[in-house]
Amino acid sequence: QAQLVESGGGSVQPGGSLRLSCTASGLDSDNYAIGWFRQVSGKEREGISCISTRDNSTYFDDSVKGRFTISRDAAKNTAYLQMNSLKPEDTAVYFCAARTFTTVGGLCVYPRYRTSAHWGKGTLVTVSS
User: Fold this and answer.
1) pLDDT tens per residue across span 85-107
2) 82: nearest Cα among 100, 62, 60
3) How confident is the model at residue 45 (pLDDT cuts 50, 70, 90)?
4) Distance between CA atoms of residues 113 and 66, nearest Å
């Protein structure tokens, strides 16, 4: 059974940094897209960054370009989201998701793929002074 476990959330002041980790297990292929979504109460979950295990292609939402980077450690089946220059509007619950045989655009951009993706439980990121 597939499982995604996130870690690394917390509270930080504006301008600070955090790194989120997501470790995947039990996926039925090593060809998958994995990424990060965030959700604020009352709003839809939005895809902010994804990476492909097939070719290491990446996707970033415009709201985080230049501030966030995504990487992965294939040996550990772990993806990382490095978040720099954090802003109060980055405050949200961050979820990790993965879907096999999917492009980064397919996972991060198109909601129809999310219903069949595997999801973590989420981790809260709070940016406040």
Assistant:
1) 999 999 999 999 999 999 998 89
2) 60
3) very high
4) 26
